[in-house]
Amino acid sequence: MSALLTPSRITSLQNRVERLVERLKPWSWLWPPMAFAAGLGSFFLVDRQQWLGAALALGLLFAWLLLLSESLISRWLAKRGHPTLPRGVTTFIAQMIHQETLFFTLPFILITTVWNSGQTLFAALVVGMAALSIIDPLYYKLAGRWRSLYFIFHAQCVFLVVLVVLPIMFYLTTRQSLQLALVITVLVALPSFWHLLNKRSLKHWCLFLGLTLVLAYAAWLGRIWVPPASLWMTSSALSPAFNIQQRQPQGSIALTPQALQANGLYVYTAIRAPRGLSETIYHTWYHNGAPIDAVELAINGGREQGYRAWSHKLNFPADPSGKWRIDIMTDGGQRLGLLRFNVSEDPDKASLADSHINASGLSGLNLRRFIPGRSDDADPSSEN
User: Fold this and answer.
1) CB under 8 Å to 336, separation ≥6 — which residues?
2) Low-confidence spans in the chain with pLDDT less than 50
3) Angle at CA 319, nearest 5°, toward 317 and 320?
4) Mean pLDDT of the chain
5) What is each CA distance from 22 to 32, 143, 363, in whole angstroms?
6) If 0-12 CB within 10 Å is exposed, 13-18 middle and 19+ buried, where does residue 260 land?
7) In what order do the strands lie in the sheet with 335-343?
8) Is 101 helix (H, G, I), strand (E, B) or coil?
9) What is the reported pLDDT for 326?
10) How many whole angstroms from its chain centre is CA 307?
11) Which pLDDT value is given to residue 368?
């Protein structure tokens, strides 16, 4: 190994890297839109089992492995007296990988975000990070002066790439991907607090361990604000009846207590998932902010318009009047969608369950119509 990694060879390799970086700098503005286009293409192509989407994700993961190992390689070279790359070069390379990560994952986040929920803040954070990554003065100030914030920025990028890439590459469920992403992110964020161990005392070790546990717990509590990057709700409807053969909601009623008790209520949701991915979702009912019921449904990916799932709730409180909310949740506690309705004695104030199928989020744009081919699935149902 030492015969291969001679100082002259390392110096020659580093000179080539520096010359390559200098040639790329004038064209660096093309990198973010290219990464965004790759992410958008990957979102659609992987759903149709195209090899290109998986290849794009694999390339992104490989780039991140290089970035994560860069500091270890630099320290290894320095201990052996070998030259290392200048800080400006390594920061530029890191900036390119951060831009690749943020703009590649941005389509996944924008499309799967439930915009009438707290996930909007998470999406805004990712958009803000993407903007920061292309503003050189701010990015280089972050990398050079505010190292703790830079490590946190880096950790958030790791979280995004793991959250998006794992379901694409290995068909992991959203729960498995989220748990693994949180664990890896906490480990990457730990250098932000490494200064606490400068004195190597027991007190500082305990404080470091405590901060690690708090960070992990806070990340898990905040999972409901994180959109499930591999799943999204394409449409939804409320109805008093349902045609199971045609898988279509039917009928129309004002949601008065009497109508609700007599007919019950059907909740129809269409969930898009990549082909080959199986998930468990829940229709979770809330009455005046209090949880009432949760109906479990199994879905499979691949259908262009979304995997159609419905539940039929028959059991309601003696007085169901008030505000109702139905959260469409993944098994890992991430929100896919949100439905609200009011039950009132006054039909004019009561919500209308009219069986109209409403497009959800960006699905209203129907971007997928530009991709030819359709497929069908059998659909689950549940009554409660």
Assistant:
1) 114, 228, 231, 232, 233, 269, 271, 281, 328, 329, 330
2) 1, 48-50, 363-377
3) 70
4) 78
5) 18, 19, 42
6) buried
7) 290-300, 278-287, 322-330, 335-343
8) helix
9) 95
10) 19
11) 43
